[in-house]
Amino acid sequence: MAKVSLVYISLSGNTASFIKRLTAYLQEGHADLEVEQVNIKDLVKEGQDFFAMDNQFVAFLPTYLEGGNGVDSGDVEILTNDLAAFIEYEENYKKCFGIVGSGNRNFNNQYCLTAKQYSQRFGFPLLDTFELRGLQNDISRVGDKIAELYRL
C-alpha cells in the first residue's frame, strides 16, 4: 500500500476543506493508497519542529500576496511562508512530487501565483490549481493525478 502525503497550509479554511474532501476521494476510490495529512499551520501553532519527510509528498498552497500586480511590479508572499520553510527543511523539496495552488480568479495574474513561484524556486512542477474551496471536479481531477503519481 502506497502512502500518500498531502502537505498543506490553510489560513481561511479553504485549503483544509479541499484536503479533507480530497482525502475522502482518495480513500474511497483508491483503496491501495494510505493518506497522510500534514498541516503546517498546526505544526507551527503547536510549536512542533519541522521534520524530514520519509516519503514523497504533494504540497498544497493558497495564494496570499501583498503589493504589486504579479507581472511587472512585484509581489510579496505573506502568511504562507511556513510552508516554504518546511519544504526547505532537510531538503524536503527533493521528495516533493509537485505543488497544487489555490486562489481566487478575480486576482487575474496573481491567481495561484505563489504556487507558480514555488514551482520555479524549488524545481518541482505545478501539478494543478483550483479556485477557493474547489469543486467536486477539481477534487476528482487532482485526486486522480495524485493517485497516478504514486503508482509510477
TrEMBL record:
Residue stretches spanning the membrane: none
Ranges in a coiled coil: none
Flavodoxin-like domain ranges (all copies): 4-152
Annotated GO MF terms: FMN binding; oxidoreductase activity, acting on NAD(P)H
Superkingdom of origin: Bacteria
One Pfam family named in its UniProt record: Flavodoxin_NdrI
PANTHER family: PROTEIN NRDI
Name assigned to this protein: Putative NrdI-like protein
Lineage: Bacteria, Bacillati, Bacillota, Bacilli, Lactobacillales
